[in-house]
Amino acid sequence: METKRLFFFSLGAVLLGVGAVGVVLPVLPTTPLVLASFFCFTKSSKRAERWILSNRYFGSYIENYQTKQGIPLDIKMKSIVFLWATLMVSCYLFQDWSYLLIILPTVGLAVTLHIILLKTKKSVENQCILKTRSGQI
Question: pTM to 2 decimals?
């Protein structure tokens, strides 16, 4: 593997690893890291690109951004609940560090607002109901 491709592959693997950690640590932004790793994989290896696109955990992040369909509502709700649950645990564990008691809720509010403002993907069931009501079916 040539140096440039090896560099992009290595960077993609690191970004994806940090993005995976971001799933459980709300301070790390998972989606931008996964998208950046996808970019790196497209520059390095077709095999790595196919792998991340077909990955059951990260493939949907990329698909939702490529197609501009948005994020499913249930994923948004679960993300916000998980975010605040982990933030509360973090605040409890680090209650002696007063500056974290200010920073963590602030980050939580910003991330919550970001998630809410993301386009919501319409489910197939809702699309069928809307078409039925409007007489298109």
Answer: 0.58
